[in-house]
Design a protein that fits this description.
By secondary structure, the protein is an alpha+beta fold. 36% of the residues lie in helices and 30% in strands. The two termini are 17 Å apart.
């Protein structure tokens, strides 16, 4: 995986043994493994496997799901390198957008009425999982106005799976970073004034600046920052603060009253068990390490 080497340490004699990476024997092995643990691996709720697109379209979607933000997700798999995986996935994605009612009916049957009513059609996603991708694949996804993730997999030994995001592109034409900051600032200013506008802009810049593969998803109740899976969700400004929810285990954090809070088991918008309360720009600086930890975990 892009030069990654994995070693198993032997605590008895302080030796190390390299675990040789390998590809799956057949494509179905990759698909079965991912589908069995798709929510843990990709943050996607499973809907269907080998979903037929009907006799006219004449295809079968490898995996169908719904991500943490309610966006429809198609997952396509290839055992090794296959230049057709992206075009095949885009072919199915176009079918999906044209068959919204059918998809929402499937969501209603599998996940319930509430999930079906909250499907977010502004950014349907394609996730391609393969043994590897070429530089032409990476260039191709950046030319499309679709949300596409290229994920490289490797199997290590008999019980280890590695996933690496090779490229991640959000739907729509890319906007300049300054324009994004100004849009966020204007939205916050309309709500609570200049101080919260500056705070919201600083949080947006900090989260987007964690890496090139960060995508932002707008929902009515929150704004999600995504690296294959959500790693941060920012709620609209309250009277004097911003609430950010992170994918960080609260048990591993020294919680500070008024700054960090364990919300596991508590209902809230967005995803993540650690709530961070931001009131000043200094708080954003204090939260940087938590932002990086959540980004790394995603």
């Amino acid at each position: 995986m892009s030069g990654l080497r994995l070693f198993r340490t032997n605590t008895t004699n302080s030796g190390v043994t390299e675990v040789t990476p390998r590809l799956a024997d057949v494509e179905a092995d990759v698909q079965g493994l991912v589908e069995a643990h798709i929510e843990t691996l990709l943050g996607v709720r499973f809907l269907a496997s080998e979903y037929s697109t009907g006799p006219v379209h004449g295809g079968r979607i490898d995996s169908l799901g719904l991500d943490e933000n309610g966006s429809p997700v198609i997952v396509e798999y290839k055992r090794g390198v296959d230049a057709g995986v992206i075009n095949q996935g885009l072919f199915y994605l176009s079918w999906l957008v044209d068959h919204r009612a059918e998809f929402e009916h499937l969501v209603r049957d599998r996940l319930g009425v509430t999930a079906a009513s909250q499907v977010l059609w502004s950014g349907p996603r394609l996730i391609c999982i393969a043994g590897d991708f070429t530089r032409y694949d990476v260039h191709a996804v950046r030319e499309h106005r679709r949300s596409i993730d290229l994920v490289r997999y490797r199997l290590f030994g008999s019980d280890l799976l590695g996933l690496e995001t090779v490229a991640s592109v959000s739907g729509g034409m890319p906007a300049a970073r300054r324009a994004r900051r100004q849009a966020v600032a204007r939205a916050a200013a309309d709500v609570r004034g200049a101080a919260l506008a500056e705070l919201a802009s600083a949080v947006d810049e900090a989260l987007l600046g964690l890496g090139d593969g960060v995508n932002r998803v707008e929902r009515k109740q929150y704004r999600a920052y995504q690296r294959l899976r959500n790693f941060a969700c920012v709620c609209p400004p309250q009277r004097s603060k911003l609430l950010v929810y992170l994918k960080v285990d609260p048990k591993g954090v020294d919680l500070v009253p008024g700054f960090t809070r364990d919300v596991s088991g508590l209902g809230h918008h967005g995803t993540g068990d650690l709530e961070v309360q931001l009131r000043t720009l200094r708080d954003v600086e204090r939260a940087q390490e938590l932002f990086r930890a959540s980004y790394a975990a995603a």
